[in-house]
Amino acid sequence: MIPYAILGPIEDILTSLLEWFHGTVGLTWAVSIIALTVLVRIVMVPLTVRQIHSMQKLQMIAPELKAIQQKYKNDKQRQQQEVMAFYKENKVNPAASCLPVLLQIPIFISLFFVLRDFEKEVFPNYPGSDLGFLHVVPNITDQVSDHWSGYLLLVLYVASQLLSTLLTPITDRTQRMLFIALPFVFIFFVINFPVGLMLYWVTTNLWTIGQGLVTRRLMPRPATPAKRTSRTPPKEAAAAAKGDGTSEKQPKAASTGAGGSGARKVRRRKRRGPQARR
């Protein structure tokens, strides 16, 4: 009952939006799902911008963060304390990069339940409507494995998910490899999903790809500032340490004079007399 209490209102909102796109705007049910996906992503734009800024900051401080983790690798409790203090000093919230994903999870699950009972609860209220898509998908409420078009959407899902992951600024190598592997693992689960849900997921990935290309132009990665923290040595100490290890170069004194070893020897040309000329 608790999941229904949480997801029930979201299911009602998604159903009302689908009915509005279909009944008022005049879109087909499949295109209504695409329009619903775009609307959800537009609402999430402020969170997405915050996510991008958070990931850019994480990229900037990644070398210092790795140094702290390496320094306290044998003391996990101290390592966690130092990392959290480092985040606080640099005003970075790692959880901000996960907010858009966390928000999409209840929407995704709610849409799954809406499509599961769609033909019984919503579709009969609109006689003559079509559940197909572009004369390719016969029914958006069927499972992905029921038709070849579902497998086509499955391929598009994997490809778009991989491309969106490559365009996402993920600093940790292990995390990036995990995100690359997840689409292939999810195949065994999403193959039993409704086609309409896969249409929602593919549209979300395509939005993420376009968003990544746009933000790379409008929000380039900022230059890493020379920020001092409690773990960064003062500039004066660094300069003094550098000054102690270097010595001024003394100019070489050029030796001059007739008796000097470096004096340039000039060969004088002997003058020929009148008899020698003959």
Protein described:
The chain is built from eleven helices and no strands. It has one domain. It has helices spanning 2-25, 29-43, 45-71, 76-89, 99-116, 118-121, 148-166, 173-190, 195-218, 235-244, 274-277. The longest helix has 27 residues, at 45-71. The protein is mostly helical and 278 residues long.
Radius of gyration: 35 Å
Cα distance, first to last residue? 131 Å
- Continuous helix count: 11
Order of helices and strands: HHHHHHHHHHH
* Total beta strands: 0
Q: Sketch the major β-sheet.
A: none
Unreliable stretches, pLDDT < 50, 5 or more residues?
Answer: 224-230, 232-242, 244-263
What structural class do the secondary elements suggest? mainly alpha
Sheet-strand content, in percent, reads: under 5%
Count the domains: 1
The amount of helix comes to: 55-70%
Average pLDDT rating: 75
What overall geometry do the principal axes of the alpha carbons give? Answer: elongated
